[in-house]
């Protein structure tokens, strides 16, 4: 049957082909199952219509058979009454109804074949739909997984981990350089300040020493006398008299 063949081809469709298309695989699968469900409804209606036709045909057979039996009885009655012509006419009527019965019985045989085939197709389609629903869920899960993997690969390509790590390493190196520079500047500032204080301390020492020298010179000038005084001053200045 063409309908069943088409459904089988749909069921055997490759999910990878669906993923590669621009359409949404989930929507395609949902639409496929929906179409199969519609085919199932149509097939059930066909089975119901065939059964209804069979029942009507059976009623027509019974009706024609009843008329054939009735005209046969009338033919017998006419013959018993000595009316051969009337009996002949009754048998002609009976023959007409009997031919109708035979024709309708042939139709019943064909209807039985059709109904059995439709019922078989119906059972097959119901099994295919059950299988399609099961595969649909599996294929949808695979499609979503494939789409998620594709997006992840796209993100990984966009944000290369190695490139990101290299960027962090470069930033870390710059930060270390800045910290080292800051430390150098800080150390230079500290040494400069120490040098300034050292210069001030050295200047104080020179000033103190200069003041002492002035005091010694002033003391010498006040006590200096002719002869001895010069010798005494020379001694105080640390020189030996010659």
UniProtKB/TrEMBL annotation:
InterPro entries: PspA_VIPP1 (IPR007157). This is PspA/IM30 family protein. It comes from the Bacteria. Signal peptide: none annotated. Transmembrane segments: none annotated. Residues 101-135 form a coiled coil. The keyword Coiled coil applies. Residues 221-242 are annotated as: Disordered. The lineage of its organism: Bacteria, Bacillati, Cyanobacteriota, Cyanophyceae, Oscillatoriophycideae. It comes from Floridaenema aerugineum BLCC-F46. Residues 221-233 have a biased composition (Polar residues).
């Amino acid at each position: 049957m063409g309908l069943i063949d088409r459904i089988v081809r749909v069921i055997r469709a490759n999910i990878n082909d669906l993923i590669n298309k621009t359409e949404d695989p989930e929507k395609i699968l949902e639409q496929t199952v929906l179409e199969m469900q519609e085919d199932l409804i149509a097939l059930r209606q066909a089975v119901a219509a065939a059964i209804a036709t069979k029942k009507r045909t059976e009623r027509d057979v019974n009706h024609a058979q009843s008329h054939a039996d009735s005209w046969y009885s009338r033919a017998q009655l006419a013959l018993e009454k000595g009316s051969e012509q009337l009996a002949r006419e009754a048998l002609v009527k009976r023959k007409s109804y009997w031919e109708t019965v035979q024709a309708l019985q042939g139709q019943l045989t064909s209807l039985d074949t059709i109904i059995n085939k439709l019922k078989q197709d119906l059972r097959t389609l119901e099994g295919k739909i059950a299988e399609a629903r099961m595969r649909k869920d599996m294929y949808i899960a695979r499609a979503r997984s494939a789409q998620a993997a594709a997006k992840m690969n796209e993100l990984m390509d966009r944000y290369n981990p190695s490139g990101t790590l290299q960027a962090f390493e470069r930033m870390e190196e710059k930060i270390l350089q800045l910290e080292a520079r800051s430390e150098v500047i800080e150390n230079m500032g500290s040494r400069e300040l120490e040098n300034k204080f050292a210069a001030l301390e050295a200047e104080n020492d020179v000033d103190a020493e200069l003041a002492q020298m002035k005091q010694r010179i002033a003391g010498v000038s006040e006590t200096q006398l002719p002869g001895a005084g010069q010798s005494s001053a020379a001694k105080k200045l640390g020189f030996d008299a010659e």
